[in-house]
Amino acid sequence: MAHRSWFPESVAGSRVVLRRHTPTNLRAFLRWYSDAEVARLTRYQDGPMRPEEIERFFTARALGPESLSLAVHIRESDRLIGTCALSQLDTDNGSALYHITIGEKDAWGQGYGTEATRLMLDHAFGTLNLHRIGLSVFSFNERAIRSYLSCGFILEGRAREAIWRDGSWWDEVSMSVLKGDWQALRDGSLSAERPSRPGGSDGATDRPRPTAGIFGRRR
What's the mean pLDDT in 12-32? Predict the structure, then answer.
């Protein structure tokens, strides 16, 4: 459970502001998660959520104490465009899982989600002093993967052909970023394009791999 003192009232960036969710945001959730394109990128099940499912999800995840969930607003207009969260907060091991949905499709591809992710990492590592943030993403979601890479996440592994979508099997990709990675990226001593890290412990140095190797193939 997320300690309530961990919840900031707001976190401001140059283009987006993250704020605590309010009950009125349910209207936006109902629109976002009933959309087939949004559901394709965010749900393990094929197809949009039903209204009653969205209401339960909003109450538990956006308003409830089980995750640190914040609304993503465009700073200039204050328009609500999405939601991001840290869940499974483990204070003993300093870890959490990260989630983000930009629900307004006309805001896709404009860097809002990337800035929101960086703000959440700043809060997780700089304020909460966590050690590791992990996430999972479907391999066909190339835009999200590129965004995560630019924020310092690296590829840890994949569950092969775990998702059936659009008539094909796709991998579920696991990524993470450590506090040291975040600090090095902020200091400019770490490249944001690090798709993976060798898994062995033989002291081999990290070698860049083509970013394209992260994305799963249709089968």
Answer: 97
